[in-house]
UniProtKB/TrEMBL annotation:
Ranges of biased composition (kind: Basic and acidic residues): 1-16
Domain of life: Bacteria
Signal sequence residues: none
Domain called ABC transporter: residue spans: 24-254
Record-linked PROSITE patterns: ABC_TRANSPORTER_1 (PS00211), ABC_TRANSPORTER_2 (PS50893)
Any GO molecular function: ATP binding
Keywords assigned: ATP-binding, Nucleotide-binding, Transport
Entry protein name: Spermidine/putrescine transport system ATP-binding protein
Nucleotide-binding in keyword set: yes
SMART domains in UniProt: AAA
Gene3D superfamilies, per database record: 2.40.50.100, P-loop containing nucleotide triphosphate hydrolases
Chain residue ranges for the region called Disordered: 1-22, 393-437
Length: 437
């Protein structure tokens, strides 16, 4: 990190400069451990002042990525730039970054005040300046009255706040955070999430935040990258990755604690109608039809197997006495399998009629009635949703025409107008961006 004690107000950290180079950039970075590729040809740009999360399941390479940015590990290939400067080979203590670890890593024999002051001593600040800066950062993390305590006299959440104050007090260009809330209980985690958001917005420092907790990443981040087996699967805002996942992996991995992951329905293309932004694809699923907007540049053929995702809170249930979904909506006949009362909502598990092998769908309904009161019409017989809530998932390696990704299924469903399984799919539908190939 730079040894530049600037005479700026304590919390006037860095003014995020979106016009300059990214705060962090990885270009084609690879890191291999003996026979294990932890990070594979990975490229990523994190803007100045962003709260950027790296989210992925265990073993997807998150910590390895962070450790390479910190300078604790070297990549086998590729470039890592901080503020536009390649730092590969630059030792950790000379990089303009600081790290907050899951384990806090405070000095147990030092007071809270001395822990925060520790990293500042080498900056050559005047005594009054140093005192003011430590005070400001303890204020920032709302521990102003705790300076004399030792770490063991603090709760886990308070210890992590000290670690954050210590890391920020040196005013690094980038703060790296490696699962900093993982050791805390659920309630403290939720509190500290709010705190972290406030702190980041207040100081404006770029945060690069590693977590395996989907909700944490959604709540905290301006943008996030979803990692899968050492590669970036998708980068986007929380709403992008939640509402418009690019793959089955992201659709299923990005889960909300209330509604879980996306439903993924597999079927075959029946028709493509309309053109341009109005192009719609109709997919046969069981005895029903799913309608989805066709993404730009995507070409489909009649009979082509495709997967469509829809979030459980976006779908609606209809009983035999209801009118059913309005025309132009997806319409899938179902039979009830289970319901789970979760307080504010009820989770309905329903089976797709005509596709016994399909994973049951989950639909959430708000509990606007009292528990035990049933609505008119008994159990659900149809599920429906608007086409804009359908996400046509990209073909994945091993999927596509007749293929299947590991764990997935690929088989044509019996539906109106589908070609005979095994016959060559025929082009259907409209032209323009909805072109069929
Ligand atoms: N020092 C090491 N030696 C050998 N293999 C390693 C080493 N560190 C990581 N790996 C392997 O590299 C892969 C990525 O590990 P990494 O710790 O970066 O993943 P992660 O996404 O942070 O996982 P977690 O959420 O469990 O911490 C894993 O398969 C892991 O076993």
């Amino acid at each position: 990190m730079s040894e530049d004690p600037r005479e700026t107000p304590a919390l006037d950290h860095r003014v995020p400069d979106a016009s300059g180079p990214p705060a962090v950039e990885l270009r084609g970075v690879t890191r291999t451990y003996t026979d294990q590729v932890a990070v594979r040809d990975l490229s990523l740009r994190v803007g100045e002042g962003e709260f950027f999360s790296v989210l992925g399941p265990s073993g997807s390479g998150k910590t390895t990525l962070l450790r390479m940015v910190a300078g604790f590990e070297d990549p086998d290939g590729g470039a890592i730039l901080l503020g536009g400067r390649d730092v590969v080979g630059v030792p950790a203590h000379r990089r303009d970054v600081n790290t907050v670890f899951q384990s806090y890593a405070l000095f147990p024999h030092l007071s809270v005040w001395d822990n925060v002051a520790y990293g500042l001593r080498r900056l050559g600040l005047r005594r009054a300046e140093l005192r003011a800066r430590v005070g400001d950062y303890l204020d920032l993390v709302q521990l102003a009255g705790y300076g004399r305590r030792r770490p063991h006299q603090l709760s886990g959440g308070q210890q992590q706040r000290v670690a954050i104050a210590r890391a920020l007090a040196r005013r690094p260009r980038v703060l790296l955070l490696d699962e900093p809330l993982a050791a805390l209980d659920a309630q403290l985690r939720a509190q500290l999430r709010v705190e972290l958001t406030r702190i980041q917005r207040e100081v404006g420092t770029t945060f690069l935040y590693v977590t395996h907790d989907q909700e944490e990443a959604l709540v905290l981040s301006h943008r996030l990258a979803v990692l899968r087996a050492g590669r970036v699967e998708q980068v986007g805002t929380p709403a992008d990755v939640y509402e418009r996942p690019v793959s089955r992996f992201v659709a299923e991995f990005i889960r909300s604690s209330t509604t879980g992951g996306s439903n993924v329905l597999e079927g075959t293309v029946r028709t493509v109608t309309g053109a341009g932004n109005a192009a719609l694809v109709e997919v046969s699923v069981g005895e029903g039809a799913v309608l989805a907007e066709l993404p730009p540049g995507r070409a489909l053929r009649r009979g082509q197997p495709v997967a469509v995702a829809v979030r459980p809170e976006k779908a609606r249930l209809y009983s035999a006495e209801d009118d059913g979904p309005p025309p132009g909506w997806s319409r899938v006949p179902v039979r009830p399998r289970d319901t789970v009362y979760t307080g504010a909502a009820t989770e309905h598990l329903v089976e797709v009629v005509g596709d016994p092998g399909a994973t049951p769908l989950t639909v959430f309904t708000q509990n606007t009635r009292r528990a035990g009161e049933t609505g008119p019409g008994g159990g659900p017989v149809l599920v429906g949703w608007e086409p804009r809530f359908s996400v046509l998932l990209a073909d994945e390696p091993g999927r596509g025409d007749g293929g299947a990704e590991p764990g997935g299924r690929a088989r044509p469903t019996a539906a109106d107008g589908d070609p005979t399984p095994g016959s060559a799919p025929t082009p259907v539908g409209a032209t323009s961006r909805a072109d069929v190939s």
